[in-house]
Amino acid sequence: MDHITTLTEFNDERGNRIIYDGPPVTIGVNIYFRGSNNTLRVAAGARVGRLSVSFDCDNGRCEIGSHDAVPAIKATIRVGQDAAVLVGDDVSMTETCGMSAVEGATIRIGDDVMFASGNQLRADDGHPIFDVATGQRVNPARDITIGNHVWVGLRAILLAGATVGDGTVIGLGSIVTGPVPNNCVAAGAPARVVRKHVAWERPHLSLVEPYYKPDGDTVTRSPYWNLTEEAPRPSRMRRLLRR
């Protein structure tokens, strides 16, 4: 097993590699290659606060985008066999966000996504669960997709099969297990839409003037001010698999 503690270009004889042409990062970096043919690609403009990536198997892929005037990425990421974790540009975390994708699953995070603290993205459960009568798996790994300009609130968790549309807010302590549409607030366990047709912006209520923000004229509006569209309903087969 290779254990890399500096973010810089790297290749080994098993086909593992790090693709990165920015300045070396030596603090808060832990990259583990246990298998072969795994790739970590980090944009030169990435701001890394804390990054731990474990490639447990073969053919894994992890990509980290760049940052422009947003807080750094802080993430602990597990990448299993044939799996991928793809993080867009300007994705920020207040505290470390945990991510896990195995068995060919993909976690895909769009641009300008804001994570709070205590967040988890788990495309798998870590251990298999089987139906006693048939012997079949009942908890297969499934993709997680987060759109652009999404705010994931404190201690919110996204599980296998979760999808979140652009411009949406996931409320405190919520657990997302399926599709959530764009430009809404979703909250609860499992998360449900509690308000539609909303937009949010990054300026903090007490750290960025004006210190009262009663309407949209007090902030610079992003391109994500849109009406909510209905999220696609899961197919009957997917509903049966969840039982």
DSSP helix fraction: under 10%
- What is the string of helix and strand elements? EEEEEEEEEEEEEEEEEEEEEEEH
Largest sheet: 9 strands, mixed
Please report which band the strand proportion falls in: under 5%, 5-15%, 15-25%, 25-35%, 35-45% or over 45%.
25-35%
Task: Record keyword descriptors for this entry.
disordered C terminus; mainly beta; 33% strand; 243 residues; single chain; 9-stranded mixed β-sheet; 2% helix; flat
Task: Give a description of the structure.
The chain is mainly β and 243 residues long. The protein is 2% helix and 33% strand. It has one helix and 23 strands. It has one helix at 236-241, and strands at residues 2-4, 10-11, 17-19, 29-33, 39-42, 48-55, 61-64, 73-79, 84-87, 92-93, 97-101, 106-109, 114-115, 120-122, 144-146, 151-152, 157-159, 163-164, 169-170, 175-176, 179-180, 184-187, 192-196. The strands form three sheets. The protein has a nine-stranded mixed sheet with strand order 2-3-5-7-9-12-15-18-21, with no helix packed on it. An eight-stranded mixed sheet has the order 1-4-6-8-11-14-17-20, with no helix packed on it. Strand 2 and strand 3 form a beta hairpin. The longest helix is centred in the last third of the chain and has 6 residues, at 236-241. It is flat. The termini are far apart. The model is unreliable at 235-243 (pLDDT under 50).
